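It is worth pausing here to work through a concrete case rather than discussing structure prediction in the abstract. The textbook approach is simple: state the sequence, then state the predicted structure, then interpret. We follow exactly that order.
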Amino acid sequence: MAYYVVQYLYVTDADLVAKTRPDHRAYLRTLVDAGTLKASGPYVGTERDSANLIFCAGSAAEVKQAIAADPMSVEGALESFTVTEWNPILGVFAS
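Step two, the predicted structure:
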């Protein structure tokens, strides 16, 4: 298993993002409960609504599948995302 950092950039339609947020957070809770999602949350004080998610998964493809099922993706509230494998050396995510 490897860690992956995902950056979300939401669409500029704040109403769509707000409407989708409760289902999005409920979905993320299922990923936390499954042990796949280790942390997530919005950036504060940014020009655009955006967020950071940290996954522990077998592959980037697995993470992308999880993102594809996220209500933010399904409802068109996610403008873009990046998935980057991450190697934590120190701290709570280090092995």
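Step three, interpretation. The beta strands are 2-10, 37-42, 50-57, 78-86. Helices lie at 14-34, 60-69, 71-74.
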